[in-house]
Amino acid sequence: MTTPIERLDREGYCVLRNQQATHDVASCFEGQKVRYNTTKAQVERLIEWLGATHGIRLHALKFRASNNNNNVDASQPHRDVMQGSKFENVYTMLFYVDNAALEVYPGSHRAGRFATLRALKPRRVPLSRGDVVVFHSSLMHRGVYSDRGAGDNRRVLQIFDCVTDKRLHGRIYNRLKEKENKAFNGIMKGLSRQFPKILVAAGMYINVVCDRRVAYRAAGIPRDAMISFEGAVPRIDASSSDESRIGNLWYLLDTEASHDITGRQAAAVTFGEASVLLAPPVLLLAVVALLVGIFRK
Fold this sequence. Notes:
The chain has helices spanning about 5-10, 35-55, 115-120, 180-195, 195-210, 215-220, 265-295; strands at about 15, 30, 35, 60-65, 80, 90-95, 100-105, 125, 130-135, 140-145, 155-165, 170-175, 225-230, 235, 245, 250, 260. The protein is an alpha+beta fold. It has one domain (about 5-295): Jelly Rolls (Sandwich), CATH 2.60.120.10. Helix 4 packs across helix 5 (about 195-210). The radius of gyration is 20 Å and the shape is globular. The model has no long low-confidence stretch (mean pLDDT about 80).
């Protein structure tokens, strides 16, 4: 029988079923709000439990708790971390408080440019209350919001940038989105529920066809750096108060370990990414125009 660790290494993910009796993550939520210090304590207990029970001993860098309000940045195929020049074991851990589903692309965690034909066949993983998912942060995946099966709630605790060697946090660069485009987010939210195939096609193009690492190298970011993506939502500072606050905020567990990509580096990365993303269609149009010109002669 395949162990969780063996499946995690081979396919890039594993599911640990029915853990709600062990971990009261539901107590972290109050409607759309989150008790962040309570959640931080739950994160620490989950990390300790994973190591003691399954031998996966990790150190986490950040977390966020969401209730159906992360469906813009999580509904397209994406990777939580883009690997550098050397592959490292960096994981994401999810605890589902409500029924949901996750689509994964097995084996994509070790592929910088995942084969398009393989990406056309994702694996849908149905998830129930209390299920825990651990996957390589470079695994292509997306949350499924069109068939949540949990009423108005889709509560999930997401623990990011989990490593076996804490020193690896020093090689993680956080890609921040400083501004939120509410109009764009509204469109994406509607599409994610009504026409998920449109998002899959767009996400596959961005994450599969294009290798964006060159844009980060051009911005002066080290070759062995790992890029950790954060959505356009604020961070929360550690506080002694456990007052409920809006969900989906980023909570940094170690504020000094990693680096933020900001300022000139961010502008250079944005320009480089745009060039990388536009190059294939522009080249294709040029070839088509050339062929049309040849056949017209």
